């Protein structure tokens, strides 16, 4: 009997030490009970009731509103975090009341703030502050508009979920960039281009009859990190999305997103007037085409009154565009811009353009777009990828930033990990995004970093935008890799405030998504922060780029030479007996001339070019002495090895967290790291052996011998990686 009791106790202890299994659906909005009882009680005392203006306090009437969303989120979250039902009232009655309101809805709150606070909070920001009112304390959540209250509610919950002391609560914040968008590359058949987490979450076939509850959770997640726009469909667009039945479906999604401040955009196919309009042309100068777009815009705004606008990929990778009619990108963008201007819409026109005949692909967008500066309507933004090629693990910033002072430029980042091990590998991208945001363009002068070009503070920009290509799908945990959720989170946080550091974001995400236990926070945050560089090391170190396998883009393919020249990896690494790298100085493609002289000079000289961009801009002899004293060849090989070692390090770190993390996510990540280690070795062994055929040099000490000969890697066929689709 006693023995049975002891066994039972032991089982209970074992269970208690293994955190509850989780499927990851709740993202960073988990709201689990705060384990530390005294902290919980202090929070509960400081947030004893929720005082909300009338309409939301009693449920908000028919149809959800932003204030109802505020109330629901707070009530649910506080119940979870504190284990108590915090009452919702219209007038504060007790010490510790949370006072929520806008100047219009709750003018009495103004006495507790300054004009400067409200100005700083702007259209979408908020003020969160603990104040003394007589002998009592109150927590204030004030914003100029309801949506600011929602962002503030999430801000408060983040504060609590990361266990910060409420006495120190004093936040006045506003987004630095106006349009903070997710671009979904989702097709209407629910296949997600470069999507590694299942199908599209948009259930087009059954919409508008079935409105998935997932849409609301998507909107909550977006709002919790301040995102306010979503392009629902792929830039390689299907014109059908603009037909009347599909617009009804879009409207149903927009209705769910609206209270959360997320406005809907659509990718427009330039040839839509031909394909769904019955016209003979899509020429932007043709009166019938102009009329068609005007009518289409009017129809859209009838069903989606707050429709945000169009995103367009034109004359790029086979997409139709104004150049089909000998018109410019500006002619095309202005056609659509005029159609939506009347209704307050904007057009985001992508600068991701290149032609197979065009020489160095890195130069083409600049060459096409700079001459058009000043020719776009006021409601057009040109959307530029972070680098001049295509979301490579590391690229220098795009030379268009700073080069079009009369055109608002939006920054396009890729959250989905097309070139970062997709849904299978850990790569936390905030450090990469910071790198580009902080890069100094020197245009018009020193200090004009990319972030200031994009947010408009470096010029007189009228509108500002940042977009991230979404990494979510129908996988239960949204992102496939449990740790890839951190990239969705980081994108939103940086879109709101690009001055946050990658370390701050990693820390707060880990606390909310996994645990506040310092062992977990330190270990996991350090893995996240090291991961991007490790992927660069084991895949494309020292400025190498575009050497991935063809089609799916997973794994190495530096030998590929049988595609269109500008798709061939050999055109990018240019390895030969003399060395490796792409000469983009004056002796080569001279792409450097597209940068400000300060940048071009620094990068153009091998001696001052940062090591990480060396082979992006220079063709360098294998024996070249690097700052480390080692030869270039040795450095390349050692970087590959270093990347492999880093992944092995995380495996150990992760294993040490067993029992501190729920079993389900623990095992999932553990398995994925195993796979990542193997993939990293494949990259190393394939690339070092392939490059050795040119360098003719042996592997340096410290680099493990390859597992298989080069022929093995060349012949290896990677079958069906997630996100794979049959060739068209
Ligand atoms: C590339 C992707 C391709 C996209 C293209 C784009 O491989 O699927 O269509 O970018 O941005 O990275 O348009």
What can you tell me about this protein's structure?
- The protein is built from 23 helices and 14 strands.
- The chain folds into three domains: 27-173, Chitobiase, domain 2; 179-513, Glycosidases (TIM Barrel), CATH 3.20.20.80; 536-582 and 619-715, Alpha-glucuronidase, C-terminal domain (Alpha-d-glucuronidase, C-terminal Domain, Alpha-Beta Complex).
- Helix 7 links the parallel strand 7 (179-183) and strand 8 (229-231).
- By secondary structure, it is an alpha/beta fold.
- The protein is globular and about 80 Å long.
- It has helices spanning 2-17, 37-46, 54-57, 66-82, 115-121, 146-161, 214-224, 244-257, 272-275, 287-303, 329-341, 364-369, 430-437, 450-454, 485-496, 502-513, 518-539, 569-573, 597-604, 614-617, 632-655, 663-695, 710-715, and strands at residues 49-51, 88-89, 97-101, 126-133, 136-142, 170-173, 179-183, 229-231, 263-267, 309-312, 346-350, 380-385, 409-414, 465-469.
- The structure holds beta-D-glucopyranuronic acid (BDP).
- Beta-D-glucopyranuronic acid binds at residues 193-194, 235-236, 313, 317, 352, 390-391, 418.
- Residues 193-194, 235-236, 313, 317, 352, 390-391, 418 line the site of beta-D-glucopyranuronic acid (BDP).
């Amino acid at each position: 009997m006693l023995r049975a009791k002891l066994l039972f106790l032991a089982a209970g202890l074992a269970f208690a030490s293994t955190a509850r299994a989780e499927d990851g659906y709740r993202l960073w909005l988990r709201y689990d009970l705060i384990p530390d009882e005294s902290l919980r009680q202090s929070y509960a005392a400081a947030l004893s009731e929720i005082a909300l203006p009338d309409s939301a306090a009693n449920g908000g009437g028919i149809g959800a509103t932003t204030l109802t969303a505020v109330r629901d989120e707070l009530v649910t979250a506080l119940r979870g975090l504190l284990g108590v039902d915090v009452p919702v009232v219209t007038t504060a009655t007790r010490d510790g009341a949370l006072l929520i309101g806008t100047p219009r809805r709750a003018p009495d709150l103004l006495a507790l703030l300054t004009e400067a606070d409200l100005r700083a909070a702007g259209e979408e920001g908020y003020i969160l502050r603990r104040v003394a009112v007589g002998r009592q304390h109150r927590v204030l959540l004030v914003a100029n508009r309801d949506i600011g209250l929602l962002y503030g509610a999430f801000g408060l919950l983040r504060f609590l979920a990361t266990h910060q002391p409420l006495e120190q609560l004093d936040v006045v914040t506003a987004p630095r960039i106006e349009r903070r968008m997710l671009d979904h590359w989702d097709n209407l058949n629910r296949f997600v281009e470069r999507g590694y987490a299942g199908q599209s979450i948009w259930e087009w076939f059954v919409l508008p009859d079935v409105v998935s509850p997932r849409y609301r959770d998507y909107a909550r997640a977006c709002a919790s990190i301040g995102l306010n726009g979503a392009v629902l469909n792929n830039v390689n667009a299907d014109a059908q999305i603009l037909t009347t039945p599909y617009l009804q479906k879009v409207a149903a999604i927009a209705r769910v997103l609206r209270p959360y401040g997320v406005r809907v955009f659509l990718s427009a196919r330039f040839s839509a007037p031909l394909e769904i309009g019955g016209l003979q042309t899509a020429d932007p100068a043709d009166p019938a085409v102009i009329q068609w777009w005007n009518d289409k815009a009017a129809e859209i705004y009838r069903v989606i009154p707050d429709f945000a606008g169009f995103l367009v990929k034109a004359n790029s990778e086979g997409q139709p565009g104004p150049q089909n009619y000998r018109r410019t990108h500006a002619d095309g963008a202005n056609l659509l811009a005029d159609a939506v201007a009347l209704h307050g819409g904007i057009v985001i026109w992508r600068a991701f353009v290149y032609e197979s005949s065009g020489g160095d692909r890195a130069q083409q967008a600049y060459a096409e777009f700079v001459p058009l500066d000043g020719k776009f309507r006021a409601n057009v933004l040109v959307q530029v990828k972070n680098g001049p090629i295509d979301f490579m693990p590391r690229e220098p910033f795009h030379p268009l930033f700073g080069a079009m002072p009369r055109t608002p430029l939006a920054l396009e980042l890729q959250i989905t990990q097309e070139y970062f091990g997709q849904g299978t590998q850990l790569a936390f991208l905030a450090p990469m995004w910071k790198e580009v945001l902080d890069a100094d363009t020197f245009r018009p002068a020193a200090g004009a970093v990319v972030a200031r070009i994009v947010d408009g503070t470096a010029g007189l920009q009228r509108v500002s935008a940042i977009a991230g290509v979404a990494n979510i799908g129908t996988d239960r945990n949204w992102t496939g890799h449990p740790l890839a959720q951190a990239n969705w989170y980081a994108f939103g946080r940086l879109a709101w405030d690009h001055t946050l550091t990658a370390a701050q974001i990693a820390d707060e995400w880990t606390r909310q998504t996994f645990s506040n236990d310092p062992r977990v926070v330190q270990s996991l945050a350090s893995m996240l922060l090291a991961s991007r560089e490790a992927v660069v090391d084991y895949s494309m170190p020292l400025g190498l780029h575009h050497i991935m396998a063809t089609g799916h883009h997973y794994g190495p393919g530096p030998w590929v030479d049988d595609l269109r020249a500008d798709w061939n990896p050999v055109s990018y690494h240019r390895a030969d007996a003399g060395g490796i790298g792409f000469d983009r100085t004056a002796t080569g493609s001279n792409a450097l001339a597209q940068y400000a002289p300060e940048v071009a000079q620094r990068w153009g000289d091998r001696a001052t070019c940062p090591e990480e961009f060396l082979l992006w801009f220079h063709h360098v002899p294998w024996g070249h002495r690097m700052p480390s004293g080692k030869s270039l060849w040795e450095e390349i090989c050692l970087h590959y090895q270093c990347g492999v070692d880093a992944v092995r390090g995380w495996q150990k770190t992760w294993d040490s967290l067993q029992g501190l993390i729920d079993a389900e996510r623990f095992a999932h990540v553990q398995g994925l790291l195993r796979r990542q280690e193997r993939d990293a070795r494949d990259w190393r062994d394939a690339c070092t052996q392939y490059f050795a055929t040119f360098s003719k040099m042996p592997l340096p000490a410290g680099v493990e011998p390859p597992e298989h000969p080069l022929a093995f890697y060349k012949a290896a066929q990677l079958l069906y990686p997630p996100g794979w689709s049959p060739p068209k």
